[in-house]
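A common beginner's mistake is to predict each chain separately and then try to dock the pieces by hand. The better habit, illustrated here, is to supply every component at once so that their relative placement is modeled jointly.
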Amino acid sequence: MKLTLKIWRQNGPEDKGGVVTYPIEGVSEDMSFLEMLDVLNEGLTAKGEEPVAFDSDCREGICGMCGVMINGEAHGPERTTTCQLHMRSFRDGDEIVIEPWRADAFPVIKDLCVDRGSLDRIIQSGGYISANTGSAPDAHATPVPKDDADRAFMAAECIGCGACVAACPNASGMLFMGAKITHLGEFPQGQPERDARVLSMTGQHDEEGFGGCTNLGECSRACPKGIPLNVISQMNGDLLRAQRHRA
Amino acid sequence: MATSTISAGKRPRTGSILLKTVMAVTGVIFVGFILAHMYGNLMIFAGKDSFNEYAHHLREFGTPMLPEKGFLWIMRITLLVSLVLHAASAFLLWSRAGRARTVRYVQRKGEWATFVKRSMRWGGVALLVFVVFHLLHFTTLTINIGGTYDNPADRLVASFGEWWAVLIYLFAIACLGMHLLHGIWSAGMTLGLNTSLDMAERLRLVAILVAVVVVVGFALPPVAIFLGLIP
Amino acid sequence: MTAPLIEGLYREGEPIADTAAPAGPIAEKWTQRKFDAKLVNPANRRKLDVIIVGTGLAGASAGATLGEAGYNVKSFCYQDSPRRAHSIAAQGGINAAKNYKGDGDSIYRLFYDTVKGGDYRSREDNTYRLAEVSADIIDQCVAQGVPFAREYGGLLDNRSFGGVQVSRTFYARGQTGQQLLIGAYQALERQIGAGTVQMYARHEMLELIVVDGKARGIIARDMVTGEVQTHLADAVVLASGGYGNVYFLSTNAMGCNVTASWRAHRKGAYFANPCYTQIHPTCIPVSGDHQSKLTLMSESLRNDGRIWVPKRREDCEKDPRDIPEEDRDYYLERLYPSFGNLVPRDIASRQAKNMCDEGRGVGPKVGDFRRGVYLDFKEAIGRLGEDAVRAKYGNLFDMYKQITGEDPYQVPMRIYPAVHYTMGGLWVDYDLQASIPGLFVTGEANFSDHGANRLGASALMQGLADGYFVLPNTIRDYLADGPYEPIDVKHPAVVEAQDAVERRITTLLGINGDRSVDSFHKELGHIMWEYCGMERTEEGLRKAIDLIRSLREEFWRNVRVLGAADTLNQSLEKAGRVADFLELGELMCIDALHRRESCGGHFRAESQTEDGEALRNDDQFLYVGAWEWGGDNGDPVLHKELLEYEAIELKQRSYK
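With all components supplied together, the output reads:
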């Protein structure tokens, strides 16, 4: 396949940046999207141009490190991560626009790499169950209904890639946060901190400069793990409950 | 050494979910009002007298427990406060969303979401303008269309004899329908009602149902009057 | 006096021994060690600094636990968030001797299975302890909210895994590693929030600081600004994972590297059993030269999938659905009737290679060779129904379809072995302390628990055992003698380390040759896979050593690294890692060459039984080969740690 790539290049956080066009040939449909970028980078290196910086690590769709905007869609046209997107989703002659995630809470570091530390700070503010090492009771001490455990698992599938924020017209991080709150809130072990967790995390979310949610659902549509919108509603409900409890 | 657990003291005073909750609650108040309003409008099909009686009765509602127009004023104040809160929250969230992404994408998909987002914001502004017009028209009687009359039913029938007035009202009703379609769903989400995929379906259904009922219910009187179906 | 050069490649030094494990019955050693290890007063803990490199299961759990205990922890990872460490990709599960199924499991049986699975090349004491703390891990994780699979009664579900006959594997669909890591990550983030752990994401350790023979800190590069930083501490923990990426193509993440371990090795830490690598049998086959990594599918697939190749070569091109039962060779079931498709990984991998070498491989030709065997779920779909298969393996099937474009519900999957895990690593004693005092090594980065082959669902167990329960109890014995004397940043050892790092960066950027870093890495990987992969020979290994040496020479003359030192520069990062792989690769080949026996993942063609099984040589090789760095122009020095089996009788492994 022959393609035309339009890639956002930005030398550093302070640089203004802009789109640069690169033609590329010899792309096979068995390549993953990132392998296609590897080929581009090999070519750039041979020509003495600095390769395009992009993040990736596991390349099997689970670490959440990769993620770019492809033709205006987070992770591209399929519901998967960028590393698991394969070139068979494109056609010969296509023009592909590649941009970094855009949100003020995700400042660009270089080219397609952004800083998603804001997501870590949301977790720091309460996205955990406090269980000091060695203090745990036997795992079978508290049975958990299978449905609850399954829902928790569904929410816990979040890989923290940030596609939800990138896709959201308001650059909101509610799906990410709702997933964590739903995951921990489904377990008996998560109850003691449930109120404090939602209060603290939602506060941190706003402090980081994410936008508010308008329930449009773009986040869930972009989520490579298919996390449903109801985790946001769950979080909203939990917040109301927590505020009642505190009042 | 034990570590302290979460400190719950960081909450900013106006968290975005709190603003959303305000919008949801005030929105629900409006939905209630709108349904009642629609019911009242439909009285015109029972004849001008019934309609006038209904309008008059609104003023006396609750008397003698309440002074005359007491109920009306409670309603007016509630609605006004709701409107101010609803709009203020919306504008705050709007501006926050703008600040959350100051560098825009070169290319963007998701046209439907963008359309819905814009329809909520600009449609909301349009509704605000319409509400002012509507109050000047039927409440303060500042604007007169098709002449001046001393009872509500005549004023109604005369106004909707004018094609452009019908158009203004139909446009506003369409805006309202769009606003409700997403607004009711969104309020349900914000109030924590969507807790499963099934609930999401039901919530969507309720939103569609209410929106359709409201659009049809409000559009019937002006259209019927314009077509001369109301004597 | 220098020892004589053996085979022109290495010298032999003094034997070493693990002196940290207490004497006494194996079942009481850990309790005894915990009691004997000195305590640190809670008030003193905040005066003690601990550096932890890596935030996978072993690193994040250690960071969280030491942070909770009140030590000052500095945690480093090269990813943008500690949650992305490659433990996250582990799919299948985690073993624990809970015996919740009542099927005769016990600590002793888990210990026995692990030692046997490791082909009797692991240290008994460490492996026993691993089995002993395994049950605590499950309790800890459940308390943290890890969403393990459950039965309708609300209790935890288990499944069985390769190489064992009990159900002791806890799992969270095909994302067990992810869920466990997120649990540990959240515990770590909690400590970061509490201020006991300072997190340095996008930082890469490039040198170990050794002062007066003790590990006292690291030099790290801030990968965003390029700043070369000095971090000093009372102890350094390496939890930096394995070195499978020396093969270029592996199931490791793109960034997995040996640099932290290798830099420590060059500073005096012994590297043990580097040739023990695990080739995982169920990976998606290579599709072409562009390939950047291989994707593993959980070996839990072997519970229900049946592995076969056509009986006749001429059938290899046919649509597998058109090949009748009688023309299929379910070779694992044929060769190993009692374990069948559930034989340990090393055996399953080697047999797949044998089938392909016989010309009975399937799938497209890469080069002029078909590398693939079928993993067929038709029988399972018939027996359990498609929905049940989907519930169990749906995400794996989806992943397979995403990558290959084929639907495994319709067509059998194609699988082929790929490098997956490295059992070798830095040598540690029972306390997980390396041969440099103050340097501790946990998880895949150390060598201790898996011998020559790791059983499925044991890596997660080891990472968390080390991080949550072992290291925090053993490191305190070392820290109790601290705080160690403060070190000035102008100390010659610190300056030397810092200069070395800066010099290396300048050199790499200054070569400006013709070849990209990746091209060197690919070539190295090819050499390693060809000669130090699933089957190793004397001749091949000698050839590999020569090839690696000349490739390394060319690398330092001809590599092209563009960009600057003071920004994010991914070529520069890769160049440093590949430079270290080029040194490690040679040591792996030397280790593989010197070990003239077959054991576990190390299969020497010269040492096999009549029917082609690995043949150990316990008389000569019942030891851990711990290598000391011999200097840039010197030769590696082998220190042998003799393995003693007291609790378990040495046997030839059999899964027939």
